[in-house]
Design a protein that fits this description.
Rossmann fold; four-stranded antiparallel β-sheet; 7 helices; about 35% helix; globular; binds adenosine-5'-diphosphate; binds magnesium ion; ATP binding
Length: about 250
Amino acid sequence: KTLLEVRGLHANVNGIEILKGVDLTVKSGEVHAIMGLNGSGKSTFAKILAGHPAYEVTAGTIIFNDQNLFDLEPEERARAGVFLAFQYPIEIPGVANNQFLRLAYNTVQSQHGKEELDPLEFDDFVREKMKLLEMSPDFLDRSVNEGFSGGEKKRNEILQMALLEPKLAILDETDSGLDIDALRIVANGVNQLTNKDNATILVTHYQRLLDYIVPDYVHVMEAGRIIKTSGKELAKELEAHGYDWINTDDRGNT
Ligand code: ADP
Ligand code: MG
Ligand code: MG
């Protein structure tokens, strides 16, 4: 089933065109990697999927799970199953992580007409998920992301993802700043959460993460467009030869 269909997406930030015709099709069960140099528009694309207000879409369509994504407010997108793990996760001092996670979880549950969990029930549920991610239960009592190390923030994002069970998870640079153990744990988490009914878009500058999460497709973004799409071997080729190696024929006339 086609989960996400992006056609001719153009978008501006502060009046400057950043995305210049992005096309992407993602089916259920697939993992897609979007690679590309800094400034190519990867994060802009991820934020537009999540509904970030700073970006003005000027042309194109996005169909998500048979719905026009642009008809949905950011919160509605989250409830519909679009999950964006931020490149720089926010800190929320004074709100314990378990409160924050339970609120997020119950909001989605109630939207789907499902039972909300009280603190004790949620505690059991979240601890199970944390075992999967090899996370210490100490995490639950700390303020959201406050004083978390880079690796802890990333693991906490994966925990949110494990709780919310999104249809489409978008991980933007989830690998940056992770040591090899944290990278492995995050990758294991993503791999365990991937199934035939959901899909993952990994935005990454480096191919390192792709040693642990094997994508079905690798796309290269350049100057606001996807200029090349291939299988997992493309990531290795980019690692070995750099982005300049891509044939200029792939670049069209930009
Ligand atoms: P990537 O994630 O591939 O590094 P980004 O999407 O972050 O690329 O950025 C693409 C381009 O858009 C860059 O030139 C960046 O400076 C510009 N850009 C992104 N967000 C903003 C913003 N809020 N205001 C101004 N320029 C922006
Ligand atoms: Mg960047
Ligand atoms: Mg980015």
